[in-house]
Structure formats: C-alpha cells, structure tokens
Design brief:
Layout: E1 10-15, E2 19-24, E3 41-46, E4 64-71, E5 74-81, H1 84-100, H2 114-124
Antiparallel strand pairs: 1-2, 2-3, 3-4, 4-5
C-alpha cells in the first residue's frame, strides 16, 4: 500500500499487507513535549482493528477500515471502504482534513486536555481562528 502524497506533518509509520499506520508529527509527540501515545494516528486495516492479541486474520470479504486515534482510548471517526485502494485514498483525505484543522478532536475527549489541544491547534492552523 503506497501513499504517494500525504498532508504536511503526516508520515507513513508502517505498511503491511492488511494494515498501514500513519502518524502526525512524530517529532512533536516524542515523549519529551507530549507523551508518545498522544501522537495522532490513522490506521488502515482489512477488517476491524482488533484490540486483543490473537484476533483472527481478516477474511477476503472483510471491508477496509480507516480509523483516527488521538490516544489509545480516544477514537475518532472510523470510515469503511470496499477496497484497499479506496481506503488508502480515504486515509489520505482524513489526514488532509486533520492537517487543515477540519477534525474536531476536542469533541472526542471526555476530560479536556488544554495544553495538548493548544499544541494541536498550533500544528493544524486552528490557532488562527
């Protein structure tokens, strides 16, 4: 799965036959300024992403999913696609929307994190609003 162009700040972290992981600004979320688990991450998976080890392998008929995570327990939008190619495009579109500041990450949190939100605002251009 190749990602030709991603929005500024997004990098391909890993790619396998049934998964791809994209991360946003890993240089910022490096455990010094912000904890590494806070790195915004987009997973592209064949079948729903399992949270437990030993999950069955996806079957040929499973759809592809694109899911945004802001932290391990903070999940954003999940989109479903019929093919790997369309899922790849969907992931690139989601990455672009996030980089433009079009994703309302505040609404995903039950407990606000003002310092984290301020930094994300700065990185996505929302601090100009």
């Amino acid at each position: 799965m190749e990602f030709e162009e991603l929005a500024p700040g997004w990098e391909v972290w890993s790619v396998e036959s049934t998964t791809a992981v994209l991360v946003f600004r890993p240089n910022v979320f490096d455990t010094d300024a912000f904890p590494a688990p806070c790195v915004p991450t987009i997973y592209v998976t064949k079948g729903k992403r399992g949270r437990r080890p030993g999950r069955d392998r996806p079957s040929a008929g499973d759809p592809w999913y694109v899911t945004l995570y802001l932290e391990p327990d903070v999940t954003g939008e999940q989109r479903e696609f019929d093919s790997r190619e369309v899922a790849r495009e969907g992931a690139a579109d989601l990455a672009a929307a996030f980089a433009r500041g079009d994703v309302d990450y505040r609404s995903l949190y039950q407990v606000p994190r003002p310092e984290y939100f301020s930094r994300l605002d700065e990185l996505t251009g929302r601090d100009d609003e």
